[in-house]
């Protein structure tokens, strides 16, 4: 009897890591969005004050 070893067996376990190759980038995307929102609100207040 021959045992068949499939090379694509471990790939489903590594699927989520291949979808997000740089997980550290998500740490910077959220603060950047909050910063841009705060700047936009500040611009609106400055324009509304004049």
Write the SSE topology.
Elements: H1 15-19, H2 26-49
Describe this structure in words.
The chain has 50 residues and is mainly α. The protein has two helices and no strands. The protein has helices at 15-19, 26-49. The longest helix is centred in the last third of the chain and has 24 residues, at 26-49. The model has no long low-confidence stretch (mean pLDDT 75).
Overall 3D shape: rod-shaped
Low-confidence parts: none
Order of helices and strands: HH
The count of DSSP E runs of length 2 or more, i.e. the number of strands, is 0
Portion of residues within helices: 55-70%
Mean pLDDT: 75
Q: What Rg do the Cα atoms give?
A: 23 Å
Q: Give the helix tally.
A: 2
Kindly estimate the percentage of residues that lie in beta strands according to DSSP: under 5%
The biggest beta sheet reads: none
Head-to-tail CA distance between termini: 84 Å
The structure class reads mainly alpha
Task: Provide tags for this entry.
50 residues, rod-shaped, 2 helices, mainly alpha
Question: Quick gist of this model?
Answer:
With 50 residues, this protein is an all-alpha fold. The chain has helices spanning 15-19, 26-49.
């Amino acid at each position: 009897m021959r045992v068949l070893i499939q090379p694509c067996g471990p790939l489903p376990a590594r699927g989520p890591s291949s979808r997000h190759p740089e997980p550290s980038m998500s740490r910077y995307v959220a603060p950047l969005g909050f910063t841009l929102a705060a700047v936009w609100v500040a611009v609106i207040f400055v324009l509304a004050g004049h």
